Amino acid sequence: MGTGLKSGASTVAAAVETPGQEPAGFVTPDYWDEACRHLTRRDRVLNKLIPRFGEARLQSRGDAFTTLARSIVGQQISVKAAQSVWDRFVLLLPAAAPPVAPLQVLALTTETLRGAGLSARKAEYLRDLAKHFAEGSVHETDWSAMGDEAIIEELVAIRGIGRWTAEMFLIFHLMRPNVLPLDDLGLVKGISLNYFSGEPVSRAEVRELGDAWAPYRSVATWYMWRSLDPLPVEY
């Protein structure tokens, strides 16, 4: 996350804030402190890494549609480029608009969306996402009672949302504590640098290390991202 990597890396917009301060409108997980204590006791790398970032922690914007829309915008491009496109996209919306709403997106044509820097495919994906939310075919009110895999299955039915994007949603919106995004290049690079002296890391090795991080694999993953880019990265 926040590495600027492509092809599945966590390329989403960065929110820069004073360390230890929570931006207005963001929420943080209530399990974070316990997770940090657990991981520092059990993992020599995290024992050194976690204290470097003080009170900084995972934060959620609390809006499901915005989180998924930002994830689509950020696919396959750098953090900086994703933020630039997102900013231009937001300028297309009504000046007094609240957080991005599905009907606002559906009111924009594909051509208009492309004018903000979105590819034709991403513009179509955004409109399909908006249609799913507007028609109620995603079950937000049920998510709290659903398991991670069930939510992933529901989300990947939407065009433009694959497993990686759904896992980012689990971490950043629902703040599920035990998600290990095996296809995230930022996670793989963080593990390579912190645990294997920069040597290539296999999927099996990532999974094995993740098993040792349970039940707080999301938290450990977040610190792997932060080891590559110290600025907080949010959806």
TrEMBL record:
Ranges where the HhH-GPD domain occurs: 73-229
Enzyme class: hydrolase
EC annotation from Swiss-Prot or TrEMBL: 3.2.2.21
Enzymatic reactions: Hydrolysis of alkylated DNA, releasing 3-methyladenine, 3-methylguanine, 7-methylguanine and 7-methyladenine
CDD domains (UniProt xref): ENDO3c
Protein's UniProt keywords contain DNA damage: yes
Keywords: DNA damage, DNA repair
Name used for this protein in its record: DNA-3-methyladenine glycosylase II
Organism: Sphaerotilus microaerophilus
Domain of life: Bacteria
Keyword Lipid metabolism applies: no
Pfam family, any one: HhH-GPD
